[in-house]
Amino acid sequence: MAVEKKRPRGLKGSAKAKANKKSKVDETPSEIPENAQTVVIDKVVEEGDEVGEAAALYESAIEKLGKFSQRDAAAALPLLRGTIHESDRILRNHESSSPLPALFYFTYGAALYELGRLTEDEEFEPYLDAAQERLNTGLELNDATMEDKIRLALAKIWLAQAASAISQGDEQVDTIPALSTQALATLDSVIAKGDVPAKTMIELADIVQNHGDLYEDFTSREVFRVWAEDALNKVLEKEPENASALSELGLCQLSLANYHLDHEEEDDDEEEEEEEEEAKTVLTQGEQKAYDAILNSKGYFETAKDLLVKSNQVSPQILSDLAETLLNQANLVLKEEEQLEIYHRVVENIKEANALIAEKNLDFILPEALTSFLEEFE
């Protein structure tokens, strides 16, 4: 059946929350889990190496977060708390005249940053301040093996601090804060060395892109979107079939499309009644820009999905992203027959995601807009 055509809505609101924090997770006990020692052993830490044990806990937490599920994020919380608990204890008991290694301060600071992003009902800024203090202490040790990791971690903190200032401001921010500029310059200097792993590059691109979504000014937003896309393309130059990089590029283009649609809506209010009376035959300039970006986004998501299907790693997330992009495309298509065909593809991807969630007992929740569309369409 045909459904009522609705103008696509942007992701602007959700982006503002995401730029500062990861998705919130249900709190779990803050003690180190019973299998924490097993985690340490699995990481092959030398007996008595307390700094190494704390680092192993942190690395295990990051692995959990990298799986992008609510369940794994919840499992990461006690590991992060355990990392901080152990770091507190190590620092408190340290009596040697020799300083603790830079790895210790990196682990301590990075864990504070990640915990602050995940912790429900707590202010992020105190975590950021404490994390920055630990990382700066580590940087002062001039350990060449840790310097770049610490600088990347500091850049993420600066972006988060700038984002907090923007989100809490009463007035629209058009200019880019000095902290954001400093963060990008730091990222550029580290990445220029060519030693940043692909996974880290993709994570940084995601953070930078989401930060850019906070700005109302298009020129300011573009600084961050272009940076993110350049970083992702660097990954694809070495790994052309990196599905994660392709997916992030799709999100960059989807963000661009939603910006144009959001601002098109602001300009269209006066013409709304007139448009209802007369069938539309051409897209506005803003809608055409959005449509072009949507097509780019769809291409990235489709390629990423194909690669994930081949490797048996397809996820509800890629299906959800593709469905959202197709829905945006359909809502801009002027021919009803073509629109209906695309709507059917939206439904296929939503149902495929639901089937995957049920089959693997995943805790992924589809966006409400997609579930509502499915109910309305059927």
From TrEMBL:
Gene Ontology cellular component terms for the protein in this record: nucleus
Coiled coil: none
GO BP terms: positive regulation of SREBP signaling pathway
Keyword Transcription regulation among UniProt keywords: yes
InterPro entries per the UniProt record, alphabetical: Nro1/ETT1 (IPR024318), TPR-like_helical_dom_sf (IPR011990)
Location relative to the cell: Nucleus
Keyword set includes Translocase: no
Ranges of compositional bias, category Basic residues: 1-10
Region described as Disordered: spans on this chain: 1-34
Gene3D superfamilies: Tetratricopeptide repeat domain (1.25.40.10)
Keywords from the UniProt entry: Nucleus, Transcription, Transcription regulation
Similarity comment: Belongs to the ETT1 family.
Protein name: Enhancer of translation termination 1
UniProt lineage: Eukaryota, Fungi, Fungi incertae sedis, Mucoromycota, Mucoromycotina
